[in-house]
Input
Amino acid sequence: MSEPLLQVRGLAKHFRLKPRKLFEKPPVLKAVNGIDFDVEKGRTLGLVGESGCGKSTAARLVLRLIEPTSGEVTLDGVDIVRSSRTALRALRREMQLVFQDPMSSLNPRMPVGVSIAESLRFHRVGTRAERHAEARHYLEVVGLSPDYFDRLPHEFSGGQAQRIGIARALVLHPKLLILDEPVSALDVSIRAQILNLLIELQAEYGLTYVFISHDLSVVKRVCDVTAVLYLGKIVEIAESAHLYREPLHPYTQALIQAIPVAQPGAKSVSEMGALQGDVPSPIKPPLGCPFHTRCPHAMERCRQEQPPLQSVGSGRKVACFLHDGA
Ligand code: SF4
Output
């Protein structure tokens, strides 16, 4: 087993909301509620769950784009949470975020090559000519022509724009890429191309990824380890091969059953009703097991007590009384 590049311990973010009535206690939204995980160098961890489960907030906490309420994050042994602003600026070179919609982070009036080179300028790297040469090089690395340097963002398709987003992150030579739903907005055929590119880049540059997605079929393809989040907590974490072959948590089982069937016109299990109901509000999560309101196996105990995330062997952990003492 290699050393973890990223270590996350007890990470939490509780947002204090405005009270709706005068003198009312401000409600607290527990977006991320104490999560732990490691990501080894050169490997990929998937963070999955339905929207609102806390996966994107977790990504922003890891990068310290938002301040955690509590917990620790270390990158290569360096404490991110307690780093000074100056140290954090240097650390940010080493961990980059790739967005779902790269267009939203590109200046529509700035040539894409200049946008890529801007990341280097922000970190005071090289001369202007060197930065532009690097930008041309990374356009090529992500499968685009260096001649596209002067083109504006609107001249690119969604898949090409995502390649530009990846080039912009890679130009800083990061150790860690956080990929937030990087293929969710793309057509299925383009999606496969971008996933292949990410796999190739990881092999070539020894990159470490945290891959965030609501789509388990995508995560299954690229992630070595998968963590399933529900209402801000990890309910199951395991090597992806184990998790997909034999999911233990009823929520993971439902998500896997909900992966659409490949045959045209066939109904997915979710359409047939595998995962019933909506995610409860994170402002007022259910007492006991947070999944009990949707779980087909819920018992009386599940309504009273919260199951801890426990090791069940082979490096996997699950938070469910069905696997208590396994
Ligand atoms: Fe279902 Fe109970 Fe397990 Fe929660 S602890 S997932 S409610 S069986």
Remarks:
- The first helix runs from residue 55 to 62.
